[in-house]
Design brief:
Blueprint (H helix, E strand, L loop, with lengths): L9 E3 L8 H10 L4 E8 H6 L2 H5 L8 E6 L3 H13 L4 E6 L4 H5 L10 H12 L6 E9 L5 H12 L5 E9 L6 H4 L7 H10 L4 E5 L5 H8 L4 E4 L1 H5 L7 H5 L10 H19 L3 H5 L12 H8 L9 H13 L9
Parallel strand pairs: 1-2, 1-8, 2-3, 3-4, 4-5, 5-6, 6-7, 7-8
Helix pairs in contact: 4-6, 6-7, 15-16
Length: 335
């Protein structure tokens, strides 16, 4: 029998080229409770590629979910089993990405047009793992704006054992829009997600799309089980530092400051360089929003993103960044 996922009150969305293991380590320093997602990993990469490279993660990242991209039930079952073996807390199926590359692989948002196939995929995964299997999807595809479309999708897939749905409250337009435009141009229709919760009260329904502040999160949680945050969590990561206290009823950690987080990330960079030869720049790129809105933030970012400094140890780069902040002229302080 499938296991119901406890409501994931707040989570950080899977974002290609962004939410790698280094980004997740950084986000976990900010919030001990938020559910973190991997980038989408295709079944092909796990069936034919380097499994360790795709599934390696730090024990400190938990709770962490593996998002899979694929449409072959057998391959998804194999990949889900690997995900559980590698210690992931949830397996998520991508039925929301509209990119042409993903469509060519016959998965992502185009799968919403084949709810029975998605149900077969979910059933294949549920049968081989004990962790929850969830689905992330859109409210519609192309110009189809009928509520019946997404209702029937959720109804069919839930019968296969999926009890948690993360709903991006926009349609996915499969032709004519870039992935970026697909995140911005199709109108947000939160009311359809709320309607899903009313119609399927036993399911965990989480919402994604266009939510950028705590007030909006609190408003959505009056009706829904969870909120997934995407780009805002990445570009303004210090917001995550408020989540444990505001939404998980955990006391704020007294020692949690931006400087302390930067210090811990610098230690992590040194460890990764020693263990895996990872350049600090591959890690530092994820924390460039840490000082968002503070005096001298632009100069701080410039140092941490300066590839001419790659030969220096991370701790020396941090010292240079702090020096730049201290010496920032007042007229540039808030850039």
């Amino acid at each position: 029998m499938p296991v119901a996922l406890p409501p994931s009150t707040l989570s950080v969305a899977p974002m290609m080229a962004w939410t790698d293991r280094h980004c997740r380590y950084f986000h976990r320093l900010l919030s001990s409770q938020a559910l973190l997602y991997t980038e989408m990993v295709t079944t092909g990469a796990l069936v034919h590629g380097d499994v360790a490279r795709h599934l390696q993660h730090d024990a400190d990242e938990h709770p962490v979910a593996l998002q899979l991209g694929g449409s072959e039930p057998a391959d998804l079952a194999h990949s889900a089993r690997l995900g559980e073996q590698w210690g992931y807390d949830e397996i998520n199926l991508n039925c929301g990405c509209p990119s042409e590359r993903v469509q060519r692989g016959a998965f992502g948002a185009c799968l919403m047009a084949e709810p029975q196939l998605v149900a077969d995929c979910v059933r294949a995964m549920v049968d081989v793992v004990s962790v929850p299997v969830t689905v992330k999807h859109r409210i519609g595809v192309d110009r189809t704006e009928s509520y019946d479309f997404v209702r029937d999708f959720v109804g069919t897939v839930s019968e296969a054992g999926c009890l948690t749905f993360i709903v991006h409250a926009r349609n996915a337009w499969l032709k004519g829009l870039s992935p970026k435009e697909n995140r911005e141009l199709p109108p947000l229709r939160y009311e359809l997600v709320h309607r899903l919760k009313r119609e399927f009260p036993a399911l965990t329904i989480c919402i994604n799309g266009g939510i950028t502040g705590s007030e909006q999160v609190a408003q959505q949680l009056q009706t829904l089980d969870g909120v997934m945050i995407g780009r805002e969590a990445y570009h303004n990561p210090w917001w995550l530092a408020q989540w444990d206290e505001q939404f998980f009823h955990r006391s704020a950690r007294a020692a949690l400051t931006r400087e302390a987080v930067e210090e811990q990330m610098t230690d992590y960079m040194a460890r990764e360089a020693k263990l895996h030869g990872t350049p600090w720049s591959a890690i530092a790129r994820h924390m460039l929003g840490l000082r968002h809105g503070l005096p001298g933030s632009r100069h701080w970012r410039q140092v941490w993103s300066d590839h001419r400094l790659k030969a220096l140890p991370a701790r020396d780069v941090m010292a240079l960044a702090h020096e730049m902040v201290q010496n920032s002229p007042p007229e540039c302080a808030t850039a």
